[in-house]
Amino acid sequence: MSDVVEKTLSALPGLFDSQTGAARITSRLRQLVKSITELTSKHEEESLIKQELSSMKEQVSSPNTSMKQMREIMVRAMYCEMLGYDASFTYIHAIKLAQQGGVLEKRVGYLAVSLFLNEGHELLLLLVNTVLKDLQSTNVIEAYMALTVVAQVFPKDMIPAVLPLLEDKLSEIIRRKAVLALYKFYLIAPNQVQHIHAKFRKALCDRDPGVMTSSLHIYLQLITESPDDYKDLTGSFVTILKQVVDGKLPVDFNYHNVPAPWLQIQLLRILSLLGKEDRSTSELMYEVLDESLRRAEMNHNITYAILYECVKAIYTIHPKAELLEKAARCIGNFVLSPKINLRYLGLKALTYVVQHDAKLALQHQMTIIECLDHTDFTIKRETLELLFRITNAQNVTVIVEKMLDFLHVYEQCTTSYKMNVRCYVPMITLTFAPDNSWFIQTMNDVFSTGGDLLQQDVPNNFLRLLAEGKREEDDQLRLYAVNSYLTVLNGDASHLPQRFLQVMSWVCTTTHTHTHTHTHTQNKNSAMRLIQILVRDLKKSYLLNISVRLYSNFKYHFSSSTLILEGVKRVWGRDGYLRQNETTAPPVDEPSAAVQPSGQQEAAERLEPQPEPSTQNQDKLQLASSLFVGLGAGSSMSLLGKSEAPPPRFRKKPRPHESSSSSSSGTSERSSDSSSRSSHSTTDSFLYGSLLEEEPATSISAFSHTPKSSTANGLAQNKDTKEDRRANTSQILGGDMVIVRPNTFQDKHPSLVSSDLTALLPADLKDLPHSDVISLTSDPSLSLSSCRLFRDEALLLVILISNCTETVIKDVAVQLTCEELEVWNVMNCLEGNSTSVCHYALLMDEPHTNVSFTGTVSYQTQPGHTNTLSFSGTLSAADFIRPLVVSTEEYGKLWLSLSHDVKQNLKLLTDASDPLRTTLNALKDALQLHVVDIIGSEGIVACRLLSGAPCLLHCRVNGAALAMWLRSPHPALPDCILYHCQRALAQH
Amino acid sequence: MICENWIRFILIQNRAGKTRLAKWYMQFDDDEKQKLIEEVHAVVTVRDAKHTNFVEVFICGLTCYTLFPLQFRNFKIIYRRYAGLYFCICVDVTDNNLAYLEAIHNFVEVLNEYFHNVCELDLVFNFYKVYTVVDEMFLAGEIRETSQTKVLKQLLMLQSLE
């Protein structure tokens, strides 16, 4: 933009001289800003700001500082905070300024508050009275400023206090801002704003277009939630849009001669939500959509923004041939535009549209191929996304090849974009793979190039596919997989991602246990060989652990992994993805209905640039024919889209993948290594987190075990674990840890069946509710199991150590680590075939969905010969949740006092006669909740985190779902409980 | 279902990566903010005129990942460069790119009117006024007021206090 002139620093002195009136700034601030601008290094900046902050600290605490000075200090504090330095000591003064100052001070105070504090900050409570006072002020400016701050940060609990005042404001001059503040309230606490819906309608019809615009924000949100409730407003929205398009609004609202463009966009969004899958409502808007398309003809970005929204709306609502044709032409203009932004949007629109009409992609195949080679990541990404959506059995190999190329070429830069590709490849591979060998090879490629960054779903689905089949071919597939792993491991196995090794070991187990036709002993043999290789080559690492478990826990292991996969099925829910025999199924060919008028073919020809038959183009043409094969009728489609037969109309159902991982980033190669590295590690930790969640107790190697030699300080690995272990002397002798009474609980039965182990529990604990005994790990001499006992005030983790041999094992020491706590416990000896018990009281201070513990046991079978055995496991927050027994009345009181809430729709167990009660009982059983009361279609449930924070759940049957609303004083607890409720219901 | 069409943050940076304005509509802690600022700078400055004005990014904010740490919530940065300054808006990946691209331009036009031929130094020394302009035009993460005359009128009213 030419009128924004970049003035250089040399202009500084002149600028200061001219600082008068509007641009006046205080001298201290000027000095600060000036000296910071002159600094060159980050280090200098830090020390300067440190100085500044300490001088500010002195000033604010001095009683002589005037309001005016305080205002100036506040502006400097804002500057420091903006640069990322902590000036939290000024927060309270910002509030004071807003409370006590004159209008000018108030303004700065409010501004500082809205920048410094976020919604949950406790200091905000101090501001409530000031806001109330200012809202009632006769000074419009004061009320205006109060509204501004209310719309940005306001404690949720205080909404009822301010709501009546806000409603009054709806009739005043500043009502536009009031409407927006109400919108904000609706977002954070919808139930409290329910009664003023009538007023929203009034705002929609307000004579001031600004007020109407503001009310659209609320309506967009309301209609997103439940379009059916607002169908009656369709007419109004159509009328408003018509008036806007016709230029009936004041000229003030024009932007570059386009009437209220953002308002148009908002209205188009609302209309598309209303018209979705609703023929009669859609019919009401055809005319105005047509009009919008026609009017938006000016060559300006903002008209393209409207067009884009319009096209999306046309493809979302009930289709009308004439409009679709126009929209398709419009997309064509986008795609063929020389402006890169428009071309990008064209691709985006295509990606959206190909789900309904795959032939459109066909018309633009040459452009798409050009975009595949564009230097801009954003474009490239979108192109691959588009290809992903048009993948079918015929072009899958070429598309996967393109994607894998991408992975290899950009291996050095860690962007989330690659993550995306890594998800796409397996998805389409699973769906469209032409044959076994290609499928396994591609998956191996995916796992080995970036296995650890893959989403958990990918290996899960892959394994599911391998595990499920019961026929001869499936055995062959497994055999092929195992053999290919043998080849992979024959090479250099050291660089292979952990995830890939896991997959291999999983495949071994499934292959081994699931070979159905017994003639295929070959399968079993290969699997065993693979296990041997895994053990031999990778002895030094955590894999030892895997292998040991593979040997010992075959059975359990498999059943737990199927459990995980069940969960995944629900998340993905895409039939095509899970079906395994679809590999050669042709794409669904349906005669196209109104969607494909014949006129479009001509349009296609017009729009398609005639490719020059040069050699360079020859390659592209070839690529095009392989990429877009199968999109037209049959495989013999012509390049220019002149196919005779009707093109396939893809299922309208959007791919479920879209929401969860249409992930991103066309980030170009990063210049700074460190940032890429850090983002890499974040991702890693997420992946580990998920691993922990998904497979309790037998997690193969979710955390890397420290090498056996570094026992003392190498174990504090689980940074997430905020678990505190406290002694309960009556139960747990010796303070922090552990009772070990090696000779007290000996069992003469050598067998290690779980039920026997429960019998070993100390008598005083036997009556507590407890979990099943889970085998943790074992070696030839020792076998470790754990059991969780749910005491009211803590979780008792009991570790049972059994000696499997006949001989006495001496100096048995157990160490358990959660976070950095670690305690050794030395046992004298453990006689042959006996079992000893250690137990730990665990408390959870901060809710975490899952926490892990690791530990080691060291022992001596012969004097001077120490063996160690490490173990690990996961505890879920559900273990730390206890019922909270309250009456309905107490519940009501508590509900109002709690601040953090979360809402979510959950699955309702509809198969029973009383779905609500059944669902709540299922949750109660899984999570130890207390069902307080059930009235009609609503139920209230209460629980707490051990003896700490309560969490209240309000459940309502909402159609086929259970609308759950959780409240707790602790911000993370509702999320945590919600997570476990979802899990519990999914597994039910 | 929550409507995802709102602004997560607005950043103004210069070419050297110095923050000129940062307005957050989503909760981040201080470290995350700094990381984002650096990331946006790294991502945006390497792009040239042949590239689009959009970059998709992956942000792990406090608010989005508590429940499902593995699900990627995606955002895009829509940026526009004026002389040495990058104006960046972060929105949901499904949102309308051009609408925000033009919202940035609208904002800059208002700044230009307000500061009478705006330059980087105006923004540097009057950053707290720029925040007021932001609050006038974008409130609570929504595009609130797009009429330049109305915004300027409102700003002059507040200005009259001084």
Largest sheet of chain A: 6 strands, antiparallel
Low-confidence stretches of chain A: 1-24, 412-418, 538-613, 633-755, 820-828
Helix content of chain B: 40-55%
Mean pLDDT of chain B: 82
**C-alpha termini separation of chain A:** 60 Å
Shape of chain B: globular
Share of helix of chain A, binned: 40-55%
Cα shape of chain A: globular
* Most residues in contact: chain pair: A-B, 109 and 88 residues
Oligomer: heterodimer
Key descriptive features of the protein:
heterodimer, A: 988 residues, alpha+beta, 6-stranded antiparallel β-sheet, 5-stranded antiparallel β-sheet, 40 helices, 18 strands, globular, disordered N terminus, B: alpha+beta, two-stranded antiparallel sheet, 25% strand
Give an overview in words:
Chain B: One of its GO terms (cellular component) is AP-2 adaptor complex. Chain B: This is AP complex subunit sigma. Chain B: It holds the Pfam family Clat_adaptor_s. Chain B: It is found in: Cell membrane; Membrane, Coated pit. Chain B: It is a peripheral membrane protein. With 988 residues, chain A is of the alpha+beta class. Chain A has 40 helices and 18 strands. In chain A, the strands form four sheets. In chain A, strands 13, 14, 15, 16, 17 and 18 form a six-stranded antiparallel beta sheet that branches. In chain A, strands 3-10-6-5-4 form a five-stranded antiparallel beta sheet. In chain A, helix 13 packs parallel to helix 15. Chain A is globular, with a radius of gyration of 33 Å. The N terminus of chain A is likely disordered. Chain B is an alpha+beta fold. Helices cover 41% and strands 25% of the residues of chain B. In chain B, helix 3 packs across helix 6. The longest helix of chain B has 18 residues. The radius of gyration of chain B is 16 Å and the shape is globular. At the A-B interface, helix 2, helix 4, helix 6, helix 8 and helix 10 of A face strand 2, helix 1, strand 3, strand 4 and helix 3 of B.
